[in-house]
Amino acid sequence: MIEKVTLQLSGDADFTSEGGPRCEEMNPKTLLLYAAAKCVGKTALMIMDKERFRPKRFEIGISGELSDETPQSESTFKSFHVVYNIECDTEDDQAKVSRAVTLAHEKYCGMMQMLRKVAPVSHEIAVVSTEPAKA
């Protein structure tokens, strides 16, 4: 079975669950994914703030494959996959965003480091800009 959480950057610079249950309604395994997504998102935003820019849209989806087909209290995660979908104003911002997310994912986010001790963590980053390409 696969557990999944998607967080979206809101206007007040916080990440909120998109179309899913609120924290109070999540099971503990989903809460772990929620915490990891929020941690890596906040860490990436902190790096972006140092570069003095913010993306137009920032979405983080994290899924974890459980050892059992039906969730049980003794189920464990076999793997994790994180998808970063980000929209920027310019092509120059694309490189900055990609760098910030990579640093957060691989080096600075403690939750990602912790998940890597539990099971393999893969990721993909999709960054687009709304500025037309230069000729």
Would you mind describing this structure in some detail?
- With 135 residues, this protein is an alpha+beta fold.
- Helix content is 37%, strand content 31%.
- The chain has 3 helices and 5 strands, in the order E-E-H-E-E-H-H-E.
- A 5-stranded mixed beta sheet has the order 2-1-3-4-5, covered by helices on one side.
- A hairpin with a 5-residue loop joins strand 1 (2-9) and strand 2 (15-17).
- Helix 1 packs across helix 2 (91-108).
- The longest helix is centred in the first third of the chain and has 23 residues, at 28-50.
- It is elongated and about 50 Å long.
- The mean pLDDT is 90.
Distance between the first and last residues' Cα = 47 Å
Query: How large, in whole angstroms, is the Cα Rg?
Result: 15 Å
Order of helices and strands: EEHEEHHE
pLDDT < 50 stretches: none
* Mean pLDDT level: 90
| Helix percentage range | 25-40%
Main β-sheet description: 5 strands, mixed
Number of strands: 5
Total helices: the number is: 3
